Amino acid sequence: MKQATAISLCALVLLGAAGCASRQSLQHQIWQQHVKMVQSINRESCVAGCYAFEGDSNMELINFQEYFAEPACNYAHRGSTTADVLARKEKISDLKPSLIVVLVGGNDVVQSVSEDTIVTNYVELIGFYRSICDRVYCISNLPVKTGLSITSSTMSHLNGRLEKTCRRLGATFINVFPSLYKNGGLNPDYAIDPVHLNKEGQDVVMDIVKKQLAK
């Protein structure tokens, strides 16, 4: 099931709004070049005391070091669910980061994981992060393009529960959803496809995140 979901998400990224083979090839090349660049930066930035970022493809595609003078380590990976992030939590523990930022949950929804299970996984994840770091931040899940099997209203409802969970456990919830939402879904000005942010969308998210981290 996980493999099928990952393939589906990759298809969304590669196809975008069009379906021609040449567009698929170009999008794939851009994706791979960007991911390789971020991975290369990570090898230098994943050091003790860094800013640690975790989550799914929308986090994986952000070059966090572009936005911070401090070392910014990005452990996010496409297709990741809350269970996947939990499974690799020890990687972040080894870094002893000065803060942790996570965005995950959309792939859980794609896989029809129950909202209760997602929240339960967040409880465990935040509890673990809080045991190694005082500053833990959870970015809200993003809106999606209208017409998909998953909806922005589903993401919004999940975000409401995650916000309450963060408040209860001492983590900070960063709600970027409203800033990316337009006409019932993900603002097309901020999207490369139905579910992923372009550079402008990443800038919007990171502007909000940076302001929250500065508090």
How would you portray this structure in words?
With about 220 residues, the chain is an alpha/beta fold. It has one domain: SGNH hydrolase (Rossmann fold). The strands form 2 sheets. It has a 5-stranded parallel beta sheet with strand order 2-1-3-4-5, with helices on both faces. It has a two-stranded antiparallel ribbon with strand order 6-7. β6 and β7 form a beta hairpin. The chain is globular and about 40 Å long. The termini are far apart.
Q: How many β strands by DSSP?
A: 7
The CATH homologous superfamily: SGNH hydrolase
Quick one: biggest sheet?
A: 5 strands, parallel
What is the CATH first-level class name?
Answer: Alpha Beta
Radius of gyration: 16 Å
How many helices does DSSP assign?
Answer: 10
> What is the percent of helical residues?
40-55%
Order of helices and strands: HHEHEHHEHHEHEHEEH
CA distance, first residue to last residue: 41 Å
In the CATH hierarchy, the third-tier topology is known as: Rossmann fold
Structural class by helix and strand composition: alpha/beta
Low-confidence runs of at least 5 consecutive residues: 1-18
List keywords for this structure.
10 helices, alpha/beta, five-stranded parallel sheet, 11% strand, Rossmann fold, disordered N terminus, two-stranded antiparallel sheet, 215 residues
